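Give me structure tokens for this 319-residue protein.
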Amino acid sequence: MGRQSKPIAGVIGLGIIGSRVVSALRRNGYQVWLHNRTPRPEPNFLSSPAEVAEAARHIQIFVSDGPALLSVVKNLAPALTPEHVVMNHATISPHETREAAEIIASRHAHFLDAPFTGSRDAAAQGELVYYIGGDPAVLAKVLPLLQASSKQILEIGEIGQASIVKIATNLMAASAVEALAEAHALLERNDIDLRKLSLALQSNVCRSPLVDMKTPVMITGDFEPRFSLKHMFKDVQLALGLAAEKEIELPAASAFAGAAMAGIQQGWGDSDFSVVSRFYGFPGQGHALPDAPPDAPSPQPAAAKPNPTRGWGLFRGRK
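Here you go.
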């Protein structure tokens, strides 16, 4: 008897991450059926989420926000059966996550709250980390599928709790990048080579993989999106909303949200979220670093320096 073939996979949402997850699944022998709001010239591309559900029992969803997820789930619902497992990978509020789960459950299908960490390059290498909220027995059904695009899968707890963990980690990333941009500004205004900060951090507890990743792109002005400013702004807004419900003050989140809004007003929403460094207009932007990653894209020239306070007052209670 021949070996049992791998399950057919469905993927909805072919953006920066979803498209690379599709490639990882195909490398691992999966037949993948696809849908995206904007049609793509891809093999097995279908015209609706419902058609994906008819073709595949295990479905991964990579859309931009909660309303987009709920729209997809409502479209999927008529085609769902008890054999289906639907995984949401978008960073959305726990309330929207639970609403999506209820829609899926009403069709006796299964749902996993499954946001991820890892940007464009991690997705391309099949090294995402999934945070899972939901029934461990349901996770067991789709574990090989998730392993095809990940290096680690962390069980967090109930549906909705994984979403909160992801929002918290993105809040930390946003605040760290804003702090890095501010640290660079201090050096630049005091005529210190910005690369000296990287040297100092090699023996400092503040060093992190995120700092190592973002330092060269911020200095060179290469803001090709690994994770866009508009999406990070959305995630920090989710953190602020959750904090307001629990009467928690998040000053670092508020500061980044103000900077991000100002950047989006400048037209930078589709750029990497490290683009907030452009508010400081480093003279070195646009020049390659000797120790830049060998596969880094060619740097883009920096734009004219805008007013760094424009728009921030909206989040600080002043004009």
